[in-house]
Amino acid sequence: MSPFPPCCFTFTVLRNNAQRGLLVSSVPCGGGQQQQQQRIVGGLDSTRGQITYIASLTKRGGHYCGASIVNDRWLLTAGHCVCSGVNKVLRANQIRAVLGLYRMSEFAGNRIDRALGGDGAYEMGLRTIVPHPGYVCNKPSNDIALLEMTQRIDFTPSVRPICLSSGADASARVEGRTAVVAGWGWQQENRNLGDKADTLQRAVVDVFRNEECESMYRRGNRSRTIARTQLCAGKGTGGVDACWADSGGPLVTSDNVLIGIVSTGIGCARPGFPGIYTRVSEYAGWIVTVIDRFNGS
C-alpha cells in the first residue's frame, strides 16, 4: 500500500502529479485555525493548539532548531540543523524531538507539567538522519534534511502533519502572498539582550519573488544569488523575521501548506534583508523517494 494517499481537505493530489500540495500521511493535514514567526522577531504568541505540525529539536536537553511533521514516521528540517560544530552530520541518538509542545516551561525530561497547562507534548528519539545528498555542512545550498523517528508518531489534536508544497507551478502560487513562520527562537538578533521564547511564536511575513529579493540585497550592498531552490520571506521594512534557533522551522501558507524551511539570511529582521528559506516544492520528489526507500527497507 502506498504511504501517500490523496491529500485531505482543500487539496486533491496525486502522488507524482501534485496540483496543490503533497500529503505524506493518511491523517488530515494542517495546523488548526491559522490567524492574522532562529524566537521570532516581531511575532506574537500563538494560541494553544493553533500550530500542530511543528516539533522542537533538542540537543543535551535544550531546544536549538525546529522541524515539521510530514507523516507518522518523518520530520523535515534544515540540513544545517543536523550538523555538528565541526561540520559533520550528527548521530541520530544526539537529537531528540518534542512534539505537541506549546510552552518550553511546561516540558522537562519527557514530563509535561499539567499544573502549568501542558496537555499533550511528548519526546521521541531519532532512528535515522537523511540530509539531502547535495548538502554540505555550513553551506546554504540544498539546506534540507529528513528525520526518521524511532517509533510511529502518536497523532493527537495537538500533533498533526502538514501538507507539503509541490508541483511545477508552486512558485507562482506562493510569491506575492503572505505566510506564517513559527518557532521558539530568539526575539532579537543580539542574543546578549534576550533569550529564546518560552511560548511558541508566530508571525505573518510577505513572500517575495527571488528577483525582487536579490534586488533588495543588492541595494543593501550585500549582493547574493537566490537559487531556484530557495525563497525569501519577511518584511521589506524589516522588523518581522525568523531568528536564531528558529532554523529548520516551518513557513506555511494560510491554507496550511508547507512552502519553506527556515535556512539563512543576514541577521534577524533587518530592513531590506528578508529571511532566506529552503523552497519545499523543489524537494518534493526527493522527500517521496527517501520515505519510500526507508519504508521498503
Automatic annotation (TrEMBL):
Belongs to the peptidase S1 family. CLIP subfamily. The keyword Disulfide bond applies. One of its GO terms (biological process) is proteolysis. The keyword Disulfide bond applies. InterPro entries: Peptidase_S1_PA, Peptidase_S1_PA_chymotrypsin, Peptidase_S1A, Trypsin_dom, TRYPSIN_HIS. SUPFAM superfamilies: Trypsin-like serine proteases. GO terms for molecular function: serine-type endopeptidase activity. It holds the Pfam family Trypsin. Keywords: Disulfide bond. This is AGAP001395-PA-like protein. Residues 40-292 form the Peptidase S1 domain.
